[in-house]
Write a structure and sequence with these properties.
The chain has 12 helices and 10 strands. It is an alpha/beta fold and about 325 residues long. The longest helix has 22 residues, at about 300-320.
Length: about 325
C-alpha cells in the first residue's frame, strides 16, 4: 500500500483522536439536552427558581434544559443522583440550603457536599423572619428575650419543621440570647405562621414569603429578618444584626452545582449564563414574586459560602443537641 493511499486513513485516525480530546469535547458543549435536577417536589421555591433558570438557559445556550424533580429524603435522593452523574455538563443540580444542613442532620449521606460537587453560582436567597401575633405586647427581639428570661419554661416557637433553616434560626436565637424556648415543628411555613394567630405559640421562626402577607394585613408583627440587610418589600423591619446580634445571618438559598470533575470551561460558561439569566428585570421580578432576592454569584463565592455555612450549621446543631437521623 502506498503512502498516498494511507493518507485518508491517517486523516480519519487524526479526526477520531481529536474528537476524543477534552478540548474538542468541551468546545462542542452543549450538543444535547441538559437535565437540571431539583431534589424536591414540583411547585416549591427551589422548583420555581429552577424553571426560571431553565427557560433562560435554554434560550442562551441554544439547547434544551429540562427540569427533573427527584424528591425524597430531604433532598438527599436527588443530590445523590447528581453526585453520581457523569461530569460532562449534561446533569446539573439546583440545590437549596439542604445541601448545607443535611450534613449535620443525617448520619449517612449518598454524597459529600465538598468532594462530589463543583459549585457554579448562588442564584437567589431569602431570609427567615421572626414574627409574633399583632395583639402581643412584644414589640422587639429585646422584648422577647427579656420576657423569655423572666418566665423560663413558658415560651415556645413554631417552625416549618425540624431541621429546617427556620428551626435552626430559632435555635441560634436561643443560644445567642441565652434563654429557653421550646420548639414546636409544623408541616410547612403556612401552618407554622397560622399557629401564632391561633395562640398555640408565642413566636414564629418561618420563611419570609409565608409570613409576609399576614404581616402586611396586620395579623402578625415582624420583629426582625435574618438577612444581612433589610428586605426589599419590608424595609421597616430591622435585621437581627440591627436588633443587637452581630453576624446573625440565617438565610435560605438556591444554588447551581455540577458533578465534581466537570470541565472548568463548562463551569465558567454555566456561571456566566446563569448570572446573565438572573440579571434581567423579568427574572428579578419572578424571583421576588417567589420570595427571593437575586444573588447571581460566582463559583468562588458559592464555594466560600459552603465552606463557611456547612461547618457553622454542624456546630449549631451540636450545640442545640439535635441528634442526626
Amino acid at each position: 500500500m502506498s503512502l498516498l493511499s494511507l493518507k485518508p486513513l491517517y486523516a480519519a485516525v487524526a479526526a477520531a483522536t481529536l474528537a476524543l480530546m477534552p478540548g474538542a469535547a468541551q468546545a462542542a458543549w452543549p450538543e444535547r439536552t441538559i437535565t437540571l435536577v431539583v431534589p424536591f417536589a414540583p411547585g416549591g421555591p427551589t422548583d420555581i427558581i429552577a424553571r426560571i433558570l431553565a427557560d433562560s438557559l435554554t434560550a442562551s445556550l441554544k439547547q434544551s434544559v429540562i427540569v427533573e424533580n427527584r424528591a425524597g429524603a430531604a433532598g438527599n435522593i436527588g443530590m445523590g443522583m447528581v453526585a453520581r452523574a457523569a461530569p460532562d455538563g449534561y446533569t446539573l443540580l439546583l440545590a437549596s440550603t439542604s445541601i448545607a444542613v443535611n450534613t449535620a442532620l443525617f448520619k449517612s449521606l449518598p454524597y459529600d457536599p465538598f468532594k462530589d460537587f463543583a459549585p457554579i453560582s448562588e442564584l437567589v436567597n431569602s431570609p427567615n423572619i421572626l414574627v409574633v401575633n399583632a395583639k402581643s405586647d412584644i414589640m422587639t427581639v429585646a422584648d422577647l428575650v427579656k420576657r423569655a428570661k423572666a418566665a423560663p419554661g413558658t415560651f415556645n416557637y413554631s417552625s416549618p419543621g425540624a431541621g429546617t433553616k427556620s428551626h435552626l434560626t430559632g435555635e441560634e436565637l436561643k443560644q445567642r440570647g441565652d434563654f429557653e424556648m421550646a420548639h414546636i415543628p409544623y408541616r410547612g411555613a403556612g401552618p407554622a405562621a397560622a399557629a401564632i394567630l391561633e395562640g398555640s405559640v408565642q413566636l414564629g421562626s418561618v420563611a419570609l414569603p409565608a409570613a409576609e402577607p399576614m404581616v402586611k394585613s396586620g395579623q402578625l408583627r415582624a420583629l426582625a429578618v435574618t438577612g444581612a440587610k433589610r428586605w426589599f418589600s419590608m424595609p421597616e423591619v430591622p435585621t437581627m444584626i440591627e436588633a443587637g446580634f452581630p453576624g446573625f445571618v440565617s438565610d435560605t438559598f438556591s444554588a447551581l452545582l455540577a458533578p465534581a470533575g466537570t470541565p472548568k470551561e463548562i463551569i465558567a460558561l454555566l456561571a456566566k449564563h446563569s448570572r446573565d439569566a438572573l440579571a434581567t428585570e423579568k427574572a428579578r421580578e419572578q424571583a421576588r414574586a417567589a420570595g427571593f432576592e437575586v444573588v447571581a454569584g460566582t463559583p468562588e463565592e458559592l464555594t466560600a459560602k459552603m465552606e463557611k455555612e456547612i461547618p457553622a450549621v454542624k456546630a449549631l446543631v451540636e450545640r442545640a443537641g439535635i441528634k442526626p437521623q
